[in-house]
Amino acid sequence: MTQDLITGPDGLARPLWASRDPLLQAYYDTEWGMPVRDERGLFERLSLEGFQAGLSWATILRKRENFRAAFAGFDPDAVARFGDADVERLLGDAGIIRNRAKILATIGNARATIELRADGGLAELVWSFRPDATPAPRALAEIPSSSPESVALSRELKRRGFRFVGPTTVFALMEAVGIVDTHLVGSHRRGTSGVWAD
Q1: 153 in Cβ contact with 123 (< 8 Å)
Q2: What is the pTM of this model?
Q3: What are the pLDDT tens digits along the chain (198 aa)?
Q4: Does residue 124 have an active-site annotation?
Q5: Could you give the CA distance from residue 61 to residue 59 in angstroms, rounded to a whole number?
Q6: Cβ atoms within 10 A of the Cβ of 52, count?
């Protein structure tokens, strides 16, 4: 077993990042890499990945309930109606990341999500970039930070009016929602999404 995996007191092997923090461990054990195929779920994760840029995922995860409250449960229809007063409200909300560009991008991305419905919707678009094969990393250093598919999806999302959707952010989204499986070989979560056979 790789040194990047730690076997916990429960006998389950996890990567270092999911072994030290109970919040991250719960996220890793129950959520990360499991398929998300609904519009609201994908919009939320795309939004949070955008806010995460330059920060740690733990920071975002600790603030997730605050984000949900601030952004109307990530209902694209509600967020798309946000105006200047909402932007000012969000900039004054210490419970979230108060970054004007990311806030404006989230509102704009909600509008772009609605526009996508005429062409099958956000979930159909994102999942259409699933690769033919998924990585099988044995060490954290082997996990890619982008892929040809994430580059292509990033380009398409930008063409459709989305912002804060660079190839690395999009690859992180693809990992989080099960489009690729980058769980380390030997982890108790490897192959558990049902999307990829181990």
Answers
A1: no
A2: 0.94
A3: 567 999 999 999 999 899 989 999 999 999 999 999 999 999 999 999 999 988 899 999 999 999 999 999 999 999 999 999 999 999 999 999 999 999 999 999 999 999 999 999 999 999 999 999 999 999 999 999 999 999 999 999 999 999 999 999 999 999 999 999 999 999 999 999 888 865
A4: no
A5: 6
A6: 19
49 noted as active-site residue: yes
Catalytic site residue from 44, 49, 149, 175 = 49
DSSP state at residue 113: H
CA distance 56 to 142: 20
**Is 156 among the residues known to form the active site?**
no
| Domain 13-176, second-level architecture | Orthogonal Bundle (1.10)
Q: How far apart are the first and last CA of the chain?
A: 16
Structure-block tokens of residue 91: 């900039």
Say whether 188 counts as a known binding-site residue: no
Question: Which residues lie closer than 8 Å to 26 by C-beta, 6 or more apart?
Answer: none
What are the boundaries of each domain within the chain?
Answer: 13-176
Q: Indicate the SS3 state at residue 190.
A: coil
- Can you tell me whether residue 7 is helix, strand or coil? strand
DSSP for 102-163, written as a single string: HHHHHHHHHHHHHHHGGGT-HHHHHHTT--SS----SSGGGS-S--HHHHHHHHHHHHTT--
User: What count of residues does the chain have?
Assistant: 198
